[in-house]
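Before relying on records like the one below, remember that each one covers exactly one chain. Contacts with other chains, cofactors or solvent are not represented anywhere in the record.
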Amino acid sequence: MAKRKPHAASIRKEDTATVKDVIDAMLKSYNLSKKFDQTTLVSTWNKIMGQGIANRTTKIEVRNNVLIVTLNSAPLKHELNNSRFKVLQLLDKEFGKAVVKDVLFI
């Protein structure tokens, strides 16, 4: 039995790129990588910090490379302010790079 020649559409060309690579290149070329990472940080805050902290978070925003988190619990605010650098390390570990320079809990 002779082998069939594969259809032209099923053959991957050498100069093709993955969708992820193309999107990353586009974000980099338009200088949107940092803003994209910051937006992703805000949207994944619940997953990163856990449900307990997420339930007490009322607002999250990034201004001038500073993550500003508004909390409705004074003891939690105090505790997180004391462990600010641990939170920054956790964020850096999640993204594999520094997304924000500082975190402010108010």
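The radius of gyration is 21 Å.
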